[in-house]
Write a structure and sequence with these properties.
By secondary structure, the chain is of the alpha/beta class. The protein has helices at about 10-25, 70-85, 115-135, 165-175, 195-210, 235-240, 260-265, 270-340, 345-410, 410-415, 460-464, and strands at about 30-35, 50-55, 60-65, 90-100, 105-115, 155-160, 185-190, 215-220, 250, 265-270, 420-425, 430, 440-445, 450-455. Strand 11 and strand 12 form a beta hairpin.
Length: about 475
């Protein structure tokens, strides 16, 4: 019978491993890893991060980490000071660690410090690589070459309904709601971290299915530090923005350095508030151009009428002066002939007198005919000038009236006046019967006022 092999307890084996590890790994080591999940516990202040190393998107190494409250608070404060972001999931870090082994929890890395400068440098490297690839492909300026309408009112918004940045954006536009109208449609998406990359791209693809329904796309997010905005340096997301068929407008927060997504977008505003103000400025610029066109038409019309009147007056004066001069010369000529005839015999004088009167009659008739012709031509010329001036003025007035009617028809007040109404529930506009609930308080806005009512019973067939 063989002698039984020596057996060990788990505790014995664990103590043996701990002894070997503590003798072998006596120092501290700088290790690069990605915090896949932070596992921070606020009640104790400790963190137990899940550390991974990825290659081609796959996890090739994984360790359990531990970070005591004092070490975590120190590192987190440094992150906030340098990057304006806390330590969080999904960032690549350089850590000072100590290898430890526990019989209950196994092998782990005790994190003593984290260098935030490494994380910042890694983000900058990703940004530069993305920029280089986009420029090499020749699409860096593609979206900037898209034409933004003079009055971009139909906007697809990629944001989160609960985002403060989105609320600020809507508040700025609402201040001008009496004068300007925007047709906004929200496409919700996560705006931070790796999920933001896929979420924003998915909504861009959704918008691209019906590009004719929108004038532009706006990506709106509240403020954040460089780490929080790192997803906007992602190549796939930046490429999707650069090659999008509609102009993309960005207002994603107070970043000291612009992300690649902002750089390739058609228009970038540093905050959602600034983006809203930029859109309102487009409307005001349109108003100014209409006002300048009206003034230009008025000035040109007055100038044409004034110049034509001056020409008519000048021609009339010239004609009157020429007629007077001709008549004076003719009278002098006749007087000289009369004096000559007086020296002739009575018979000759009589014949000459008859001939003279006949000639005087012909001259008078010719003069009157010539004056009449000149007056006819002058009247015809004046009529043509006046007719052309009036016709041009009427055409310009019709164009101006058409513009004014178009603007008036598009005004929300005009839409309400034609019998339409706005239905609100809980302060929000109801656009679908599916959103109505039995007993819900409703507010109906008509052209001349609002009515409060209550939905007694909801017909499910109609709602569907």
């Amino acid at each position: 019978m063989e002698t039984a092999a020596k057996t060990y307890t788990l505790t014995d084996l664990g103590n043996s491993l701990k002894s070997v590890i503590e003798k072998k790994y006596t120092g501290r080591y700088w290790v690069v890893a990605e915090i896949n999940k932070l596992n921070y516990y606020p009640h104790s202040g400790h963190a137990y991060p899940e550390l991974v190393e990825k290659k081609d998107g796959k996890v090739v190494a994984q360790f359990r980490g531990q970070m005591w409250k004092s070490d975590f608070d120190t590192a987190n404060s440094t992150f906030l000071e340098l990057l304006n972001e806390p330590i969080r999931d999904g960032i690549k870090v350089l850590m000072l660690v100590k290898v430890v082994f526990d019989g209950m929890y196994g092998l782990s890395l005790q994190i003593k410090a984290i260098d935030p400068k490494y994380s910042l440098g890694d983000l900058e490297a990703e940004k530069n690589l993305t920029l280089a690839k986009l420029k090499k492909e020749g699409i860096y300026e593609s979206n900037k070459r898209k034409t933004l309408p003079l009055v971009p009112k139909r906007l697809a918004i990629i944001s989160v309904e609960s985002s403060k940045g989105y609320a600020d954006f809507l508040q700025i536009l609402a201040k001008s709601s009496e004068k300007y109208y925007f047709d906004l449609r929200l496409f919700p998406s996560i705006l931070q971290g790796e999920q933001a990359v896929t979420g924003i791209q998915q909504q861009l693809r959704e918008i691209a299915k019906t590009p004719q329904e929108f004038d532009a796309v706006a990506i709106i997010r509240g403020g954040g530090g460089d780490v929080g905005l790192s997803c906007y340096n992602n190549y796939e997301l930046s490429r999707a923005v650069a090659t999008f068929p509609l102009p993309v407008l960005t207002g994603i927060g107070h970043a000291t350095n612009l992300t690649v997504t902002e750089l390739v977008a058609h228009t970038n505003a540093i905050t959602p508030t600034k983006l809203a103000e930029l859109l309102l400025q487009q409307y005001r610029r349109f108003d100014d151009e209409i006002a300048r066109a009206k003034e230009k038409i008025r000035v040109l019309t007055e100038k044409i009428v004034r110049e034509n009147k001056q020409k008519i007056d000048a021609n009339q004066r010239s004609l009157v002066a020429a007629t007077k001069l001709f008549t004076a010369r003719l009278l002098v000529h006749l007087q000289r002939q009369s004096e000559t005839f007086k020296a002739n015999t009575g018979k000759q004088l009589q014949r000459s007198s008859l001939a003279l009167r006949e000639q005087q009659y012909r001259i008078t008739l010719s003069t009157e005919r010539m004056v009449g012709n000149h007056r006819g031509k002058l009247t015809q010329f004046a009529g043509q000038v006046a007719e052309k001036s009036v016709r041009k003025l009427e055409m310009q007035q019709q164009e101006l009236t058409h513009l004014e009617r178009t603007v008036a028809v598009l005004h929300p007040r005009s839409v309400l006046q034609r019998g339409f109404a706005l239905i609100r529930g809980n302060g929000k506009i109801i656009t679908s019967a599916k959103k109505l609930k039995s007993g819900q308080e409703l507010e109906i806005e008509l052209y001349d006022g609002t009515v409060q009512t209550k939905l007694i019973e909801k017909n499910e067939n109609e709602a569907s």
